Amino acid sequence: MRRIRCAIYTRKSSEDGLEQDFNSLDAQREACEAYIASQKHEGWELVPEHFDDGGISGGHLDRPALQQLMQAVGEKRVDQIVVYKIDRLTRSLTDFARLVDRLDAVEASFVSVTQAFNTATSMGRLTLNMLLSFAQFEREVTAERIRDKIAASKRKGLWMGGTVPLGYRADGRSLKIDDVEADTIRTLYTLYLEHRTLRETKRAADARGLRSRKRERTDGRVTGGNPIDRGHLHHILSNPIYAGRIRHKGQVYDGQHQAIIAPDLWDEVQRLLADGAARARGSKGKATRSSLAGKLFDETGDRLTPSHSRKNGKRLRYYISRRLVIDRKQNHPDAWRLPADQLERLLAEVVQQHLNRPEAATALTLDLGAPKVAAISASLAKPMKARRYLALIERADLKPGKITILLGRGALSALLGCSMANINEVELTLEALFQMRRRGVELKLHLGDAPSEIDQTLVRNIVKARRWLGMITEGRPIADIAQTEGLSNRRIQDLMPLAFLSPDLLEAIASGEQPIGLTTDYLIKTGFPTVWSQQRPQFAAL
């Protein structure tokens, strides 16, 4: 009689109940031992080794006991694998096919004590495949139910487990604030609002000795307690959990736990992070941020979006109305195209003037004592970089000649070092008048009335036109003048009308007091009457 060495394999997906004296693994083994004993007349005998995988899913083959068992089979120390049910061995048809191939290669087999069939026959293999198909189906349905339950729970704002974020402790299906770690989180947000970059924020955090949570593992190892790296810092600053929210599959829901960071302050940080991520790929890898990205709107409500061009190898930044990007086929004469550096300097100057007023600290805050107001006043008197003023802006609306700026309540409270409840909302909105002066394709922005600026190009062209007029009066043909000047006949003809501007306009141009739009290009393209009395009404509309 042939001797058949049998090994029992047991498995349980979860660790629940494994600590009991008689658990599921023991029950499976007992049933298998009884079955092997009933087949003693067939030469079956039990090997002494135990192959038990507790708390491991059957969805994969990466199981320590199973690997040891298959090694024993490969070394021909086991002839038959005995399991309580087929799904204890595997729930995957693909994995099952791999196991069968390995068993067939060494002339070994397996048996399920609760599912009687013979895998040596085609009908037995069909039955086994059907059972495994249902086992895999059951596993996938169970996984779907678990995913649906987690999604529904998170929509209700419940904490569904995982690594507990720094600043909180697990409290059932919710989170409880850890006061010590919460101070670390608040400090990180404050530092970021102050420095605006992850690199500078990390440097400031390291200087303050801020560390990640120290964790002690079940095996005695201690992890964490290290300086917070940039990746962890970005995760903390972008995690909605700190604003009292729960994120799931790209969606964010209101949580049932208490927020560490005020929601509007968290939203402000997200805008700054998004702005910091909008980097230009310069020739040397340097990044240029558009500090007002997402904050500018024109008089039609259209957002102004960052754009750029290159001239002589230099990158020029602009803010342009979004309709110029979406519909490039249309001219959109009412659209805006503003030089970014000038506009950013202008808005930073408006905010700076607002904060540098002698009464600013008193006007901006509510219900603060005199010592605190005095400290804020002293802080506002210190100059800051332009980007820090721009970071205070939540929205800016442009219309011809006027800018309306809304300051972010959260950003301002962080700057002043007080609660958002102490911010005077009336002082969050400010307005400023500005002028645009165009010289050819160049556009300059000025607060208030634009200063006098002489258009040197226009002055030179007027001088040339009057000189050429004298030549023509003396009888020289235009072609001769064009050859002498190195210009085309068309250029001479275009500039000649400049010699007929009225004396009062010439005086205004010489002193830089002419209308803003009165340029050489405008005069050439639009034309103007040579009668002096008719020139004034036309140019007065500029």
Count of domain modules: 4
| Spans of at least 5 consecutive residues with low confidence | 279-287
| Broad structural category | alpha/beta
Radius of gyration: 39 Å
What topology emerges from the helices and strands here?
Layout (H helix, E strand, L loop, with lengths): L3 E9 L11 H15 L5 E3 L4 E4 L9 H11 L5 E4 L2 H4 L3 H13 L3 E4 L9 H34 L12 E4 L2 E4 L1 H17 L2 H10 L6 E3 L5 E3 L5 H9 L6 E4 L2 E4 L8 H15 L18 E2 L6 E8 L2 E8 H5 L10 E3 H16 L4 H5 L5 H12 L4 H6 L1 E7 L2 E6 L1 H8 L12 E11 L2 E6 L8 H18 L4 H8 L3 H7 L7 H9 L8 H7 L5 H9 L2
Parallel strand pairs: 1-2, 1-3, 1-4, 4-5, 12-16
Antiparallel strand pairs: 6-7, 8-9, 10-11, 13-14, 14-15, 16-17, 17-18, 18-19
Summary keywords:
alpha/beta; five-stranded mixed sheet; Rossmann fold; 21 helices; 4 domains; Hect, E3 ligase catalytic domain fold; five-stranded parallel sheet; elongated; 542 residues
3D architecture notes:
With 542 residues, the protein is α/β, with parallel strands linked by helices. The protein has 4 domains: 138 residues, Rossmann fold (3-Layer(aba) Sandwich); 110 residues, Putative Large Serine Recombinase, Chain B, Domain 2 (Hect, E3 ligase catalytic domain fold, Alpha-Beta Complex), CATH 3.90.1750.20; 152 residues, no CATH class; 85 residues, no CATH class. 44% of the residues lie in helices and 18% in strands. The protein has 21 helices and 19 strands. The strands form 6 sheets. Strands 1, 2, 3, 4 and 5 form a 5-stranded parallel beta sheet that branches. Strand 8 and strand 9 form a beta hairpin. About 2% of the residues have low confidence.
